[in-house]
Design goal:
The structure holds 2 protein chains of 2 kinds. Chain A is mainly alpha-helical. Chain A is about 75% helix and about 0% strand. Chain A has a single domain, classed as Vanadium-containing Chloroperoxidase, domain 1 (Up-down Bundle). Chain A contains 10 helices and no strands. The longest helix of chain A is centred in the middle third of the chain and has 31 residues. Chain A is elongated and about 55 Å long. Chain A starts with a helix and ends with a helix. Chain B is mostly helical. Chain B has 4 helices and no strands. The interface between A and B is large, with 30 and 41 residues.
């Protein structure tokens, strides 16, 4: 079973990596999307916008809970990624297939050192989108756009296998459910105190 | 080999967040947070600030193709710098806008209708300094930020 997954992963990455170098525009777009800073900062700026958004008090409260949920989900999901990485060190495509290192990975991104499974970038972006989605469906769907684009660019750069991405996505979504349904209700009082504090300081 | 430095990331996030806060303030009529009380000018300047921040960080000297081809500011550090920078940008915005409110836009504005205002939305009608003063004087109570027709 695992052999079949690895074989499928490698053939998908090899097929996608054939596109690298064919179109300068596509390569350029993927360089920007795969970047470590571009989409994470964009998502954070969107979260900042959602924090202040809302026609009335109830709507604002809902949006602020969406941001809190997104932030908590990211924090917990990154913890889960660290634990998983400590248990299983899965190699990256450019390590399994060194012929991709120079023409593909170094052309679009760079060879990263942390384990491949689960993909931390897909986990982070999907954790943010799914965390927000638990309280605000519309903005949750909007955040899905960067959440899909960043991992896609990483597969294009042969940095992750599709199964690494799927692992990160599942982890991010499950964590958002855990954060919204178990973690946040259990920590209702500290979360409410935090929001009240920010509101008293007139920043929330 | 040159890498992305934390201070460069700080400057990038600081300018982008300042731009975003002005955009938020003008879109949600948070006049107490605005630097310039002209909606079209604020929208143009805030979008320009965000675009400039991204250009400066990514595309100046083709940094995206050179400096960013190795780990610079790694994940946890990125998160910490982002949080502190956002906090700093928010405080700087609120202080500058309050000072402008005190010395330039002195008129205290009414809502025109009864409206329940809490938290940041009190900045629709008063500066941050005034909102904080009211909050800590305990004048708001259950009517936090409520304004009536002037």
């Amino acid at each position: 079973m695992l052999g079949l997954v690895i074989e499928t992963d490698q053939s998908i990455v090899l097929w996608i990596s054939h596109l690298v170098g064919k179109s300068a525009i596509l390569d350029r777009i993927m360089i920007v999307l795969a970047n470590d800073y571009f989409l994470p900062v964009t998502i954070s700026l969107i979260l900042l916008y959602i924090w202040y958004m809302g026609r009335d008090y109830t709507e604002r409260q809902k949006n602020q809970m969406a941001v809190v949920s997104g932030a908590i989900t990211i924090g917990i999901a990154m913890g889960f990624v660290l634990v998983t990485n400590g248990i299983w060190r899965h190699p990256h495509p450019f390590q399994d297939m060194p012929q991709l290192l120079d023409p593909v990975t170094n052309h679009i991104f760079y060879p990263i050192h942390d384990p491949s499974f689960p993909s931390n970038s897909s986990c982070l972006t999907f954790a943010a989108a799914a965390g927000v989605w638990q309280f605000n469906r519309k903005w949750g769907y909007i955040l899905l756009i960067p959440a899909i684009l960043m991992p896609l660019a990483k597969v294009y750069a042969a940095v992750y296998y599709p199964s690494d991405i799927i692992g990160g996505v599942i982890l991010g979504i499950l964590t958002s459910y855990f954060a919204a349904k178990i973690f946040m209700p259990a920590l209702h009082v500290p979360v409410a105190i935090g929001v009240w504090f920010l509101r008293t300081l007139r920043v929330g | 080999m040159e890498i992305v430095r934390a201070w460069q990331y700080f400057v990038f996030v600081f300018i982008a967040v300042m731009g975003m806060l002005q955009l938020i303030a003008t879109c949600h009529q948070l006049k107490g947070m605005l630097f310039i009380r002209n909606k079209p000018i604020t929208v143009i300047l805030s979008i320009a600030a965000i675009v400039f921040a991204f250009w400066w960080f990514f595309f100046r000297d083709s940094r995206i193709d050179t400096v960013m081809r190795s780990t610079g500011v790694e994940g946890a550090q990125q998160f910490t710098v982002f949080c502190w920078t956002t906090f700093t940008a928010l405080v700087v915005t609120l202080i500058i806008s309050s000072l402008l409110h005190m010395f330039v836009y002195r008129r205290r504005e009414g809502t025109g209708q009864e409206e329940r205002l809490e938290g940041a939305y009190q900045l629709r009608y008063v500066s941050w300094f005034e909102a904080l003063r009211e909050a800590f004087k305990g004048r708001n109570g259950s009517h936090a930020g409520t304004r009536h027709r002037d």
